[in-house]
Amino acid sequence: MKKNVVNLLMILSTLFFIANVYALDVQITPELPSVDVMHNGKKVTIMRNQDTNNTINPDYAKTSRNCPPFCIKPMKINEGVETLGELEIIHYLKMKSDGDDSVLVIDSRTPDWVAKGTIPGSVNIPWNNLTVGAGASPFGIIDILQEQFGVKEQEGLWDFSNAKTLVLFCNGMWCGQSPRNIDALLKFGYPAAKIKWYRGGMQNWEALGLTTVK
Question: What's the chain's average pLDDT?
Answer without folding.
Answer: 90
